[in-house]
Design brief:
By secondary structure, the protein is α/β, with parallel strands linked by helices. The protein contains twelve helices and eleven strands. Helix content is about 45%, strand content about 15%. Helix 2 links the parallel strand 1 and strand 2. The chain is globular, with a radius of gyration of 23 Å.
Length: about 350
């Protein structure tokens, strides 16, 4: 009887060890918190990653901290992050510093579906959003169609955007004035005119939604994804694509070169490119899919569908923006804090 019990205990121990091994693989994902982190869990972690016996551990931090962790751990043979989620500007800096793992379709099959304009050896785009003109359709007639509409005296003191968006607004002004987003010096006079037209700046993105709801502003410039979220919250807003083109925000995922779980990280990136994940973020957050096999339908298609012919979509030149960022930041601070 003792021998039988011992054998059963050994077998039970083997089963337990095997089960633990299956569940032991983990993927440490460095991301922002809040609703976005919850959506990652709901759209990717539970339905797409958990069945692969990979446990996702979210490392919540703001973007500067997420990037700083990769820089700080560059000398380690084994890092502390498997996947980092950042704006394209930050991801390009990490790539230029040689801190990212190169990615291939052999390891991440869904890379074959990434839109050509967003392909990179080191970065997988999660989604993108064009910067659009946002307005109250009941009060702004006709609909705006250019950055120039923000300069119209009719809208004096009733125009605005979040202060954090200033750099992309400068790129938009440059695009309008010169046809090239890399001519920010030419954009400065336009921005001064915009400021003189009673520009209102908001410390947080969502405080701009309150300004639209109260009628404080009727026209502004904003990423289309946020406009969709505000529409879904019941705010009467519409968006318009500037004739001169739209600056595009792109977010993506990267794998540090010294990621401890590269296999799990590749599976996470591949899952993020699945049509169900791409469409989930489109419906919940108003971002356009970064792949060619996730067609929009229903209300999401109505809100996010691009006109035909499509607008000119301009992704920033990140090398250029990095070079001028410090000087432009100082200039912007001086402009908006005078008097």
């Amino acid at each position: 009887m003792a021998a039988v019990l011992s054998r059963r205990l050994v077998l039970a121990g083997c089963v337990s060890a095997a089960s633990h091994a299956l569940a032991a693989e983990q993927c440490i994902v460095s991301t922002q918190g809040g609703d976005y982190a919850h959506l990652l869990h709901e759209i990717i972690d539970v339905p797409l990653i958990a069945p692969k016996h990979i446990t996702v551990v979210q490392d919540i931090a703001d973007e500067p901290t997420r990037a700083a962790k990769i820089y700080a751990g560059r000398a380690l043979s084994r890092g502390t992050i498997d996947v980092s989620i950042n704006s394209a500007a930050v991801n390009h800096k990490l790539a230029e510093a040689g801190l990212l793992q190169s990615l291939t379709a052999r390891e991440i099959p869904n890379l074959a579906h990434v839109l050509p304009q967003f392909r990179s050896p080191f970065i997988v785009p999660q989604f993108y959003s064009p910067q659009v003109l946002v307005y109250n359709p009941a009060l702004v007639h006709p609909a705006p169609d250019s950055f120039a509409d923000l300069l119209d005296p009719r809208w004096h003191s009733r125009i605005g955007f979040p202060n954090l968006s200033y750099f992309n607004v400068l790129l938009a002004a440059s695009l309008y004035d010169t046809g090239d987003s890399n001519q920010i010096e030419h954009a400065k006079p336009l921005i001064k005119r915009l400021n003189d037209n009673g520009l209102r700046l908001y410390p947080q993105v969502d405080s701009m939604a309150s300004a639209f709801s109260s009628g404080e502003i009727v026209l502004g410039i904003m990423g289309m994804s946020r406009v969709v979220m505000w529409q879904n919250a019941g705010i009467s807003l519409a968006s318009a694509f500037p004739d001169e083109g739209c600056i595009v925000y792109v977010a993506g995922m990267v794998i540090p070169r010294n990621a401890p779980g590269k296999g799990a990280a590749c599976q996470y990136l591949d899952a993020m490119l699945e049509p169900t994940a791409q469409l989930g973020f489109a419906a919940k957050m108003g971002y356009l899919p970064g792949v060619d096999n996730a067609p929009l339908t229903g209300r999401t298609a109505e809100q996010l569908g691009l006109p035909i012919p499509g607008p000119r979509l301009i992704e920033p030149d990140y090398g250029y923006t990095t070079r001028v960022q410090s000087e432009i930041s100082e200039w912007w601070t001086m402009l908006t804090t005078r008097g």
